[in-house]
Specification:
Helix content is 39%, strand content 15%. With 427 residues, it is of the alpha+beta class. Strand 7 (304-306) and strand 8 (314-321) form a beta hairpin. Helix 2 (36-45) packs parallel to helix 6 (143-165), helix 6 crosses helix 7 (167-177) and helix 10 packs across helix 11. The longest helix is centred in the middle third of the chain and has 23 residues, at 143-165.
Length: 427
């Protein structure tokens, strides 16, 4: 426990830091006569830390106490603003937001040309020009930010001095004590299912062996070098028909008294930003080609056939492979993957050539044989592929969370931390 004193910001508590980060996360080029010198001094204090070779960012970790409930906030203010209805509810809110006695923060600095950036837990807090003269008048930054920088500078300087003295001890402490909420890991999906029990999204059970077997056949077929995914002719009506096959595979439209054309189904399910696709002459290959090449699609989402969020929609892309066409089905989010599998099977059974993107990963996912990537709580669990080794083939991500955390920690493989290194002093 010797190192704990080095990783605590004295007289400063986690709620205060979180409030600072939340309030000033969008701050840019802050030229305040009180804060600007502190920002530059923090950068100089951390200059001894070896930057990441890919990002040129220098990072250290600090462990900060959550403090008492009074450090969290004023009960009367929460009560008056209607955020809580009793002191018990106020206390539960505090413990829910700060379940541990301490909370870890990463403090990072970087420099691009003349700009210095200081971040906390990957959220921009303050940036400024290295050689810019501070304004004579204070900026809109409040006393809270100034106080934060005064204490942060003191503790960062003390910590970097300690790291220079005992870098190995510092790294050992981090490896053994850094919160799992700030680390990367992977967990076998079947293990995760077992932990969640009845709350798990069991794609294997929902699809059944027959669908998974057919998916496996599709994956094998599309891996064959002789597989031809090209479509010779493409029209708007052809595309709507392919979409309707996908929709019908999931029984989106069950009302027999509401007959809908393939275009009608597309209009009801798709993103809506079709760049004029629905207005094309439906049976004309030339009209489709001219529209495809016209540039109207830029900024539009005509291929988003099942609307959703950034990572939760399903797309059926049309790609020109002159002089032919290729369909690419894409939808690997765990909450939509069962729909995607049914679409793939139906397209295959209707003898429509297509490519299923991430097909092998999807097969592993629905069978429970893949890994879920666990990312720190300060990252959104989307598009995190670059944080994991390619050989782990991870396409689905989550934050650690608080529920079932002990079981998840035990069942997960936790990647080793990147070692903090000190730049050797020349001479």
């Amino acid at each position: 426990m010797l190192y704990i004193k080095y990783f605590t910001i004295m007289n400063m508590f986690a709620p205060e830091i979180d409030n600072i980060v939340s309030r000033y996360s969008q701050c840019r080029n802050l030229s305040d006569r009180g804060i600007s010198p502190k920002l530059k001094a923090i950068f100089e204090a951390m200059r001894c830390i070896k930057p990441d070779p890919d990002t040129d960012v220098r990072t250290i970790w600090m462990e900060v106490p959550r403090g008492t409930i009074e450090d969290f906030g004023d009960y009367r203010e929460y009560l008056d603003e209607g955020e809580v209805e009793s002191y018990e509810e106020f206390e539960n809110l505090w413990k829910d937001l700060y379940p541990e006695e301490t909370k870890w923060y990463s403090f990072s600095v970087s420099k691009y040309k003349e700009d210095i950036y200081f971040t906390v837990n990957s959220e921009l807090c303050v940036s400024g020009r290295e050689n810019e003269q501070a304004d004579d008048e204070p900026s809109y930054a409040g006393q809270d930010l100034y106080s934060f920088f005064v204490r942060a500078l003191f503790q960062i300087t003390e910590l970097t001095d300690t790291i220079k003295t005992d870098c190995t001890g510092y790294n050992d402490y981090l490896e053994n004590n850094l919160s799992h909420n700030k680390r990367f890991a992977r967990i076998k999906r079947k293990d995760f299912w077992e932990i969640l029990g009845i709350e798990a999204i069991r794609a294997d059970r929902n699809l059944g062996d027959e669908f998974i077997g057919k998916l496996s056949e599709i994956v094998t077929l599309q891996k064959d070098p002789g597989y031809d995914p090209l479509i010779r002719v493409m029209t708007a009506d052809d595309f709507f028909r392919y979409c309707a096959i996908c929709y019908d595979a999931n029984q989106y439209f069950k009302d027999p008294d509401l007959p809908l054309t393939p275009k009608d189904k597309y209009a009801r399910m798709a993103d809506g930003r079709d760049a004029g696709l629905k207005r094309l002459e439906g049976g004309s290959p030339q009209a489709f080609l001219e529209w495809y090449l016209s540039g109207e699609r830029i900024g539009a989402h005509p291929w988003e056939i099942c609307r959703g969020g950034n990572s939760t929609h399903i797309s059926l892309y049309v790609h020109r492979q002159d002089p032919f066409w290729k369909l690419i089905l894409d939808g690997s989010s765990i909450i939509r993957v069962e729909e995607t599998v049914k679409m793939a099977v139906s397209l295959s059974e209707n003898r429509i050539p297509f490519v299923l993107r991430d097909s092998e990963a999807i097969l592993r996912m629905v069978a429970g044989n893949d890994y879920i990537g666990i990312v720190p709580d300060y990252l959104s669990p989307r598009y995190c592929h670059g944080y994991f080794p390619k050989e782990d083939r991870i396409i689905d991500f989550m934050n650690p969370g608080h529920e079932n955390s002990s079981e998840i920690i035990k069942k997960s493989f936790w990647y080793p931390l990147k070692k903090i290194e000190v730049i050797p002093v020349s001479g």
